[in-house]
Amino acid sequence: MPLYKLQDFYPNYKEAFHGDDVKALDLYTEGGEKIGSVDRVLVDEEGRFRYLVVSTGFLGFGKKILLPIGLSRIDYNAGRVFVDGLSKEQAEQLPEYQEKMSLTPEQENKIRIIYQGKAGNATSTNESDFNRQSYSYQQEPSMYEMTQQRHGDFSIYEERLIASRR
């Protein structure tokens, strides 16, 4: 399950977004506390959005964390992305994403376990029963699938991106 930076996967992605750019959005907790800003978007080999890379801290002094797309709620009108069930303190405890690192399936599984614990809805996805050969993002739609209700235009942009790429 290789992941790609959106701009590497499709350099003209802004055309599918009608000039909008998700990287301009700030990330807030459900309580309204700013955590950081969207720095990048990671997509799978089909072009489906899987993670937002969030730059935390002030003026780049902080770290980058991964947020599974399904846990976000995007409001383009407000220029914000909201994440439910995660506080600023919890975000600071998440592992740091390194730009040059290649995300392995095992690392992704650890990220899923952390978020499932934070949200209080742990499933059978734990380190001992993870099977990298059979795992797919569709097994956890609450973490990796977008809905029109929670993601609005962003889910439409994903479909345009996939169609444009093909």
Automatic annotation (TrEMBL):
Gene3D superfamilies for this protein: Photosynthetic Reaction Center, subunit H, domain 2 (3.90.50.10)
Domain PRC-barrel: 15-89
Superkingdom in the source lineage: Bacteria
Cross-referenced Pfam families: PRC
Name of the protein described by the UniProt record: PRC-barrel domain-containing protein
Native source species: Floridaenema fluviatile BLCC-F154
Lineage: Bacteria, Bacillati, Cyanobacteriota, Cyanophyceae, Oscillatoriophycideae
